[in-house]
Amino acid sequence: MTGTDEVLVRRAVPGDEEEIQRLRHQMAFAVFGATPPAPDEPNHVAAVKKVRTWLESGDEAGTACFVIDALDGDGLAASAIGAIDERLPNERNPSGRSGYIYGVCTEERYRRRGYSRLVLQALLDWYADQGIPRIELHASEYGEALYRELGFEPPRGLALTRWAPLP
Q1: How many whole angstroms separate alpha carbon 164 and alpha carbon 67?
Q2: pLDDT tens-digit readout, 27-51
Q3: Which residues, 6 or more positions from 68, have their beta carbon under 8 angstroms from its beta carbon?
Q4: How many domains does the chain have?
Q5: What is the span of the domain harbouring residue 108?
Q6: Does residue 136 belong to any structural domain of this protein?
Q7: Which terminal residue of the chain has fewer beta carbons within 10 Å of its beta carbon, N or C?
Q8: Residue 158: inside a domain
């Protein structure tokens, strides 16, 4: 655990999954204008279940999530979640293990206090402890400056994404 006297970063535990997903939806709304789903919406339910599975499995799932509790005791103020995936080994990454950060989210009322930096740094420390040399993320305009400060840079080559049509 890291933090100051007032703010403590901790590893997320089972029971935090609803709040983690709430923060992710809040960020998606701020960045993309997405409509926050109803708690019983199937994709929301599936995402909460997946996060709960990750939290219950700990490092065995190859994922980690770090959070800061809201100072007023009402939910979470911030979270960062990331996973490890396997790629082919190469000269820069002999293990082939890479990290991907799914989201760094801070509750609107707690922004501009360094909470994103704290949870992100805890996640980066976890990756370092796992021996992960390469970490990727997709940045919003809100987080780009922080990510660049912490050493993230545009990928070499052209990064492209393909979405298959939904059935």
Answers
A1: 33
A2: 776 666 666 666 678 888 999 999 9
A3: 3, 7, 8, 9, 10, 76, 77, 78, 79, 110, 115, 118, 119
A4: 1
A5: 2-149
A6: yes
A7: C
A8: no
